[in-house]
Amino acid sequence: MLHEGDKAPDFTTKDDQGNKVSLKGLRGKKVVLYFYPKDNTAGCTKEACDFRDNLGRIKRKDAVVLGVSPDGEKSHGKFKTKFELTFPLLVDEDKTLVNLYGVWKEKSMYGRKYMGVERTTFIIDEKGRIAKIFPKVKVEGHVDAVLEALANA
User: Fold this and answer.
1) Is 49 a catalytic residue?
2) What is the mean pLDDT of residues 70-87?
3) 67, 98, 118, 123: least surrounded by Cβ within 10 Å?
């Protein structure tokens, strides 16, 4: 279980273009690391588009946005192209990141239990510490809350 103030778990993975991305390589910048369940689904699309539409405001806070789901590089590429997303989507097919960050959880829909990503956002400060955690994110208004937290991080 991660808490605000903890050192963020380091990782290296590929993005939607096949480029290697590591948390250590982003030191000196604030990182908005948001976990979402699946490409091309209603809530995930709205969240991604909200981040896209506010990316300029986020960059002015010297922050970068990284989206993470268990989808593969090809799925991420199509999702990114379809919705003109302007930030990297990280590949986590083996679920390393969702487990490292504790967002792979038992969920329930219509009485059926299954494992999946609990929509969660982490703001990681310039030194690699977790400045803010948004658990069980509700998409509506989330980016505004992230911007407010970035101003205080």
Assistant:
1) no
2) 96
3) 118
